[in-house]
Structures are given as structure tokens and as C-alpha cells.
Specification:
The chain is α/β, with parallel strands linked by helices and 251 residues long. It has a single domain (9-250), classed as Alpha/Beta hydrolase fold, catalytic domain (Rossmann fold), CATH 3.40.50. It contains eleven helices and seven strands. A seven-stranded mixed sheet has the order 1-3-2-4-5-6-7, with helices on both faces. The protein starts with 8 loop residues before the first strand and ends with a helix.
Length: 251
Amino acid sequence: MSAPVPLPRVAWGDPASERKALLVHGLGSSGALMWRYGVALADAGWHATAVDLRGHGTAPRTLDYTLDAYAADIALLAPPSGPWDLALGHSLGGALVTAVAADRPGWTRRIVLVDPAIRLSADDRAAVRAGQEAAFADPTIDAVWTEHPTWHPQDIELKALATRQASRWAIEQTSTQNAEWDVRDAASRLTVPTRIIAADPAVHSIFTHPLSDEVLANPRCSMTVVRDAGHSPHRDDPDATLTALFEALRS
């Protein structure tokens, strides 16, 4: 595995806040696209930090895009005062948060996983590749707007920008280099409260039965489904997603 790389950060809220959150985006996305969570947490008195993963946004480019390499970058991130109070990961980010938290029990006090890529089936992988290929074929605001007309204008603008910023080769290699995409063992070893905010399978979700049943066998894990929302519920239905987030933080 290659050496870890430093990750660019964007933050919301007062840096002096005692409550610190780490936000980790999904494949082909960027730290800036976690703004819904960042703004909501900041308004609730948190300091939230999002990162650009390697090969994404303005992060360094490398040759290694295995899950282990991505996770090694994330593992180095920690507030100066102790563990994260919350580590939140979407999709790929959910897999990475799961892997790091399982191997480093003191890294975070609480986890929220948004439609996490715990295990990708062959059909999941094909759908992800098709989606990424379509995004790179037309990385414009108009194209994103046509595909997602109900999204907030900032999500549309930032999604188009994230696609233009990301390394197409890095995205392709993330699929190629992870022939076995599976962090179920890590999920079984989580020791802190973990809430999965899942998308609606009737729309599109990568965290469904029987995978969800297997992960929920860990008594530290629980799940909320955002009805009528797809793989990015914070863009499809931000109000319901943020309600689920703060319910998790209160539990």
C-alpha cells in the first residue's frame, strides 16, 4: 500500500466548539458536497470538517486507490483534543469510516453511515460505473439539473464541479483495484453507536436486504430509511435526512 496523503479540508462552525464532526464524501464527489451536513451541524453548535478524498477535488493524485489506501488517509485525521464526536460517511465514505473505526476503536465516539458501500455486488458495481461514466460524459450544470431537477441549486453546481475536479482515472481505478469490495467484517467489529441512514430501495439504494440484516446483527448498529430518496438522501430529501441525523445524535 502506498503512503498516506494529506487531504484538503473545508469546515463549518466555530473551531472552538467542543463537538467535532468529520464528513467523508462518496465516489466522484467532494468535501464541499457535504455542505448540508456541515451547515446543519454548525447551526447546532458543532464544528464540522469535510475532506476531499485522494483523487477527488483538489486532493493529491496517487497510483493507489484501494479501500485500504483511502482509509489510511482518513485514519490520520483527528481533532487535537481527542477523538471525533461524530464520523459521518456517505457511500464510499461510509465504507472508509467503517474500516477505520473498526480498526481504531478510539477514533470516533459515534458513527453515521449514509447509504454506505459496505459491500458492492456485481450489479451495484455495474450501476456505479454506468453512473460515473455518464457524469464524466457531460459534467455540466445543465446535465446534473436534468438528471436531478429537485436538488438544491448548490448541490447541482457542486456536483458538476466535483465531476470536473475529480480524476477520471482515479474513479475508474477505485473500481478496478477493489475487485473485492467488502467491509462487512469491519462493520461487525464496530463498538460505538452507529446509525445507518439508508436510501429507499424503491428508488435506488446500495444498502438493502440481506446486507442490511447482516450489518444490523451488530447490536451497536441501527437503521433509518429515508423514503422516496435515492442513494444521496441528503440531496433528494434533506429535511428527512437531517431529521434522521439529529435523531441519531440524540439516541
